[in-house]
């Protein structure tokens, strides 16, 4: 606690005297890293979600960090190019570094420091975020924890980062492995990424990183690694580790996905319940999928065809077909209605009788 107070005080001491003229931009909404866990001498990318700040979309933003060291010291009013973040879109910026290299310190010195304390700023220092901290998850205890597998997070998501640790010292026959590979799939092998030792690109893709001492690590983002189709729902990730060219394996392992609460199913209807040639035909679909924003209709009455489309969003797409004017003088006792979404999927293919009116 004392160290934390000290580093926050330093945050204010180290800001130049013109702080009064600076624009305070707010606190980052979220900060995360990929890989999820990493050693201090591994390359890592930090991500900063600034959607809750006043930084405009796509602005050039720079890292000003003073712990565990201050790489851009003395350049508050003109940040160096090496401190510039990369804009990823949707008000998310990233910064890739190898901590020991960027801070010119040893892993032990980083571990003994107060951690990664920073502000985000524009190049000239006229705009700055609140003081922020990139949290770090140590995993040194894994080597002595008597665990074959450990995952960060324990319950992964489809689009989030995942780091899986493997202790080969606890796997019989793996002690002389020259490489370890990840043979895996989503949802009980529904989408597979097999280890194929005869394909160099697959050998590289499935290869775990050797951290030394019999400890290996696999880093992946499931949606990217397995090329999951849009809308895919991840229930679990199944895998086993393979020694060299299938010289040994471990038993199948399962990581259950984070709790998934599906949205309510789409609901489609025509209204009113009974129609005639003197009515407007209402078409409505609610709880639409995220990639559905239009309904395209074709209404056929005898030899007369009516086409059109309605636009909307996830909550609702709704519109009316003017049968009053369209079917004036058309001799028909029923209409055929074909409705598709903007992806070409048939939503309804229905024949509706026309009520006779006096």
Structure description:
The relative contact order is 0.10. The strands form seven sheets. Strands 12, 13, 16, 17 and 18 form a five-stranded antiparallel sheet that branches. This protein has helices at residues 2-13, 99-103, 107-112, 200-206, 222-225, 323-326, and strands at residues 23-24, 30-34, 44-49, 62-67, 86-89, 92-97, 116-121, 127-128, 132-134, 149-152, 162-167, 180-186, 191-193, 209-212, 215-220, 236-243, 248-249, 253-256, 267-271, 280-286, 294-301, 304-311, 316-322, 334-341, 346-353. With 358 residues, it is mainly beta. Strand 12 and strand 13 (191-193) form a beta hairpin. The protein has six helices and 25 strands.
Distance between the ends: 85 Å
Strand percentage, roughly? Answer: 35-45%
**What overall form do the CA principal axes indicate?**
flat
Q: Count the beta strands.
A: 25
In a nutshell, what does this entry contain?
The chain has 358 residues and is mainly β.
Q: Notable features of this structure?
A:
358 residues, mainly beta, five-stranded antiparallel β-sheet, four-stranded antiparallel β-sheet, 6 helices, 25 strands, 38% strand, flat
């Amino acid at each position: 606690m004392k160290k934390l107070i000290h580093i926050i005080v330093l945050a204010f001491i180290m800001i130049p005297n013109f702080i009064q003229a600076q624009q305070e931009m707010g606190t980052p909404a979220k900060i995360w890293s990929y890989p999820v866990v990493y050693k201090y001498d591994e390359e890592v990318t930090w991500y900063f979600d600034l959607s809750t700040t006043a930084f405009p979309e796509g602005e050039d933003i720079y890292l000003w960090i003073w712990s565990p060291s201050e790489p851009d010291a003395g350049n508050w009013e003109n940040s160096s190019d090496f401190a510039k973040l990369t804009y990823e879109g949707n008000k998310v910026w990233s910064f890739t570094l190898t901590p020991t290299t960027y801070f010119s310190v040893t892993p032990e010195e980083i571990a003994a420091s107060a951690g990664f304390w920073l502000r985000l700023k524009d190049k000239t220092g006229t705009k700055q975020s609140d003081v922020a901290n990139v949290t770090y998850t140590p995993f040194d205890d894994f080597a002595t924890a008597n665990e074959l597998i450990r995952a960060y997070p324990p319950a992964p998501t489809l689009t989030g980062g995942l780091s899986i640790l493997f202790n080969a010292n606890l796997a019989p026959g793996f002690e002389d492995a020259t490489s370890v590979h990840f043979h895996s799939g989503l949802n009980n092998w529904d989408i597979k990424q097999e280890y194929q030792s005869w394909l160099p690109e697959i050998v590289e893709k499935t290869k775990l990183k050797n951290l030394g001492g019999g400890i290996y690590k696999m880093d992946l983002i499931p949606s990217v690694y397995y090329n999951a189709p849009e809308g895919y729902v991840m229930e679990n990730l199944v895998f086993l580790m393979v020694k060299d060219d299938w010289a040994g394996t471990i038993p199948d392992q399962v990581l259950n996905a984070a709790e998934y609460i599906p949205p309510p199913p789409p609901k489609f209807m025509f209204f009113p319940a009974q129609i005639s040639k003197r009515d407007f035909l209402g078409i409505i679909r609610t709880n639409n999928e995220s990639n559905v924003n239009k309904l395209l209709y074709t209404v056929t009455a005898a030899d007369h065809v009516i086409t059109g489309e309605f636009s909307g969003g996830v909550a609702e797409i709704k519109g009316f077909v003017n049968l009053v004017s369209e079917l004036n003088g058309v001799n028909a006792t029923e209409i055929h209605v074909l409705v598709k979404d903007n992806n070409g999927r048939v939503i309804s293919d229905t024949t509706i009788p026309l009520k006779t009116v006096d």
